[in-house]
Structures are given as structure tokens and as C-alpha cells.
Amino acid sequence: MIRDNVRVLAAAFVSARADLKVIYTWRTWSFAWLSRILTQVAFYAVIGRLLGSAERTQYLLVGNAVFIAALVSLFVCASTAWERQAGTLPLLVAAPTSAFPLFVGRSAQWLLDGTLCASIALFVLSPLFGLPLPMPRALLALPLIALVSWSTYCFGLVLAAFVLRKVEVRNLVSGIGSLTLMLVCGVQVPTTFWPAPFPQVAEVLPLTHGLGAVRDLLAGAPAGVVAGGAALELCVATGWLVVAGFAFRHLAESGRRDGSIEFGD
């Protein structure tokens, strides 16, 4: 069983890489997509500069740079819905193996894209805005950004399971999800800025602890503090991955039972 799931996951990841090559060429990725990402992050950093505060500039730049990893990972909502639009969803559900490992790997291109875009935004824009990056310590932000991508991807899989039932709302669900993370997870303002229960909700959402770990890392916090934030982010990712597994299992079982998964939409 485990070997079959690993084999399916690996094959799905190969397909995801092929999709990324179809979606972008190196020119369109570099001069269109990446430039758009850098502009978005720089926009918020400029707000901090206009406020005349180096602290606010750093807060906004780091927050919005790491947020890019979450934003791109949530594209899993749309790309998962493509399976239904293409008419391949019934075939996946009818396969003798579990469909969940396939869906986990099928949109993994967004993990690569999100991690790379967020990392470039952080390391390119920070010097431009005069923000110090303590080297080589700052390089540890790279695995933390990858962890944020993964935890948000797991959260996005839960949303994707719902979107497969209502593919017409895929972009709306993804947009609401990313906006929620931007508002309550400490990207623009600390989580404590919001009244209850928003700070408590932020504790179980992806991005919150991972972003906090990046901020602590760049501020020179002890390794135990940074590792603690990373561990919490990993726990959140695991929790959402388990929920996603149950959600996709329910989708498959109910689809087989009532015939609600058709070959096209």
C-alpha cells in the first residue's frame, strides 16, 4: 500500500513539473510572473517607507515576501478543479488505488513556484530597501519558506476537495482563502491586532507560525525559538493534510455512491 502510494505520488509530481513547463517558459516566468510578484511585495514595502519607519518597512517586506509562498500554493484549488473540467476525475476516483496521493502530487508545481518566488522576493528586495539580511543565518529562511508553502498547500487541498464539487467557485474560494491568510496571519499587522477570535483562528491556519519563525530568524532570535515556530507550522501542516485526506475520501465515496462525479463540466 505504502509503495503504491509513493509510486503514484512520484508519477503525479512528474506530471506537475510537466504542467509547469507548459504554463510558463523561462521568459514568461521571469519577465511577467516574477516581475509581478516583486512589484506586489515592493508596493507594500514602499508603504512602510512612506510611513517613515524602517521597522514597518521590514515588517511589511518580510511579511509580504513570505506570503507569496502561501498565495501561490493556494493555486492548488484551481488546478485540482481542472481534473473535473478535463473529465479525468471519474477515472481517478475509479482507479484501484487511492486518489489522494495523486491529488497531493498533481499540483506540486505550485510548491516549487511559490517557494522560489517568495525566496527571490525576500533576498532581492531586502537590500534594495536597506534591510539587513544576516548571512549565512538568513539562508535558513529558505527551508522555512518551503515549509510555509507546504502547510498552505495542505490547507489548499482541503479547499480543493470542496471546489471539486463546485468548480465554478474555484477562484473565489482560492481568493477568499489567500485574503484570509493575508489579513489574520501576521502579514500586514500582528495577529494580536485583531479582536478575538481572530488571533485564535490564526493559530491553526498555515503561514502564521512559519512567518513568525522567519521574522525571529532575521531578528537574531535563539535557535530554539525559530525551531519552535517551525515545529508549530509543521504540526499545522500535518493537521490540514489529515483533514484533506478525509475530505478527498468522502468525495470519492459519495461520488461512487450517488454518481455525482461526471466526465465533464
Automatic annotation (TrEMBL):
InterPro entries tied to this protein:
ABC2_TM, Nod_factor_ABC_transporter
Main location per UniProt?
membrane
Which segments cross the bilayer?
28-47, 59-82, 88-104, 111-133, 139-164, 176-197, 217-248
Enumerate the UniProt keywords alphabetically: Membrane, Transmembrane, Transmembrane helix
What's a GO cellular component annotated to this UniProt protein?
Answer: membrane
The UniProt record lists the keyword Iron: no
Q: Which residues form the ABC-2 type transporter transmembrane domain?
A: 25-217
A single Pfam family it belongs to is ABC2_membrane
The signal sequence is: none
Keyword match Membrane: yes
Specify the protein's topology with respect to the membrane: Multi-pass membrane protein
Q: Name one GO molecular function term.
A: ABC-type transporter activity
Cellular localisation: Membrane
Report the superkingdom from the record: Bacteria
**Family annotation (PANTHER family):** NODULATION PROTEIN J
Q: What name is this protein filed under?
A: ABC-2 type transport system permease protein
Task: Please give the organism.
Answer: Saccharothrix ecbatanensis
